[in-house]
Amino acid sequence: MSEQAHASTGTYLRIAAILVMVTLIEVGVFYVPAFQPVLVPALLSLSALKFALVVLFYMHLKFDSRLFAFLFSGPLLLAVGVMIGLLFLFFGAVRVRTGT
Amino acid sequence: MVNSMGLDNRKMVFWAFIGSECLLFGSLISTYLIYKGKSLVGPYPHEILNIPFTSFSTFDLLMSSLAMVLALAAIQRGDMRQGKLWLFVTALLGLIFLGGQVYEFSSFVHEGLGLTTNLFGSTFFVLTGTHGAHVTVGVIWLLTHWVQALRGKLGPAQAITVEITGLYWHFVDVVWIVIFTLVYLIQ
């Protein structure tokens, strides 16, 4: 359970390069009309990748105690669950009212 | 301040705090998404959001996270010259992000979008404004460490306090990663 050593400077630089590349891909996907049908899943996947890289390597969750991961991921999953629940509740209610 | 599990108590409490912040931003993002597309009057998001400008702000914040980990690594190995440099760079990049947000907010107000103009304005300003307030706190926190380092009161023995500041800073970064996608790119 104890805290572990962190990543090397080289790893930090490689992660930064990946983050910049993924951001460029996100902006590219936004502007290219061919990607419009898959825009939302593509952007959500790329955003999740960036989120995971920062949390695992820059916030050291990959190397630290699993208790820290639990303290973070528990409320995070709860927040995502509430968000999805509210979206279904609101947009589901609109569809029932309008019959669409 | 190490507990029976070999973990630093301050770090453990701070992770719990970050967990609570997930719920705060989760509620604000949910509110934005629920009211998305329900504004009765303009300006609407596609008319006003500046993607190239915000992409630069995103790049700026990602680079500040890199500077933050480099600052922490330098302080942990006792290289205070590099530590001071990277702490200052992190705070400077945070200030550039805030400057960009002030510019964005003021340009939106000039184009007719205020806090009470429509549902988009209300939810957008509250969400991004709360994030901006967090960045402001982070910049002040970073500059405090930088001044401590300049006075010789920050060294490897105090690296845990810089690590906690770093956790806060990276969390602010990941919140922006989500906002950039959900608010700016998925319109």
Concise description?
The complex is a heterodimer of chains A (100) and B (187). Chain A is an all-alpha fold.
Q: What does this protein look like?
A:
- The complex is a heterodimer of chains A (100) and B (187).
- Helix content of chain A is 76%, strand content 0%.
- With 100 residues, chain A is mainly alpha-helical.
- Chain A folds into 2 domains: 1-64; 65-100.
- Chain B is built from 6 helices and no strands.
- Chain B has one domain: Four Helix Bundle (Hemerythrin (Met), subunit A) (Up-down Bundle), CATH 1.20.120.80.
- The mean pLDDT of chain B is 95.
- In chain B, 78% of the residues lie in helices and 0% in strands.
- Chain B is elongated, with a radius of gyration of 18 Å.
- In chain B, helix 1 runs antiparallel to helix 5 (119-150).
- At the A-B interface, helix 1, helix 2 and helix 3 of A face helix 1, helix 3 and helix 6 of B.
Characteristics:
heterodimer; A: about 100 residues; about 0% strand; flat; B: about 190 residues; mainly alpha; Four Helix Bundle (Hemerythrin (Met), subunit A); 6 helices
**Fraction of residues of chain A in helices?**
over 70%
Which fold does the CATH topology of chain B refer to?
Four Helix Bundle (Hemerythrin (Met), subunit A)
Number of helices of chain B: 6
Radius of gyration of chain B: 18 Å
What Rg of chain A, in angstroms, do the CA atoms define?
18 Å
Look at the structure and give the CATH class of chain B: Mainly Alpha
Point out poorly predicted stretches of chain A: none
Largest sheet of chain A: none
- Greatest interface by residues involved: A-B, 46 and 49 residues
Beta-strand content of chain B: under 5%
Task: Kindly report the average pLDDT value of chain A.
Answer: 89
**Number of strand segments of chain A:** 0
Compressed to H and E, one letter per element, the order of chain A equals HHH
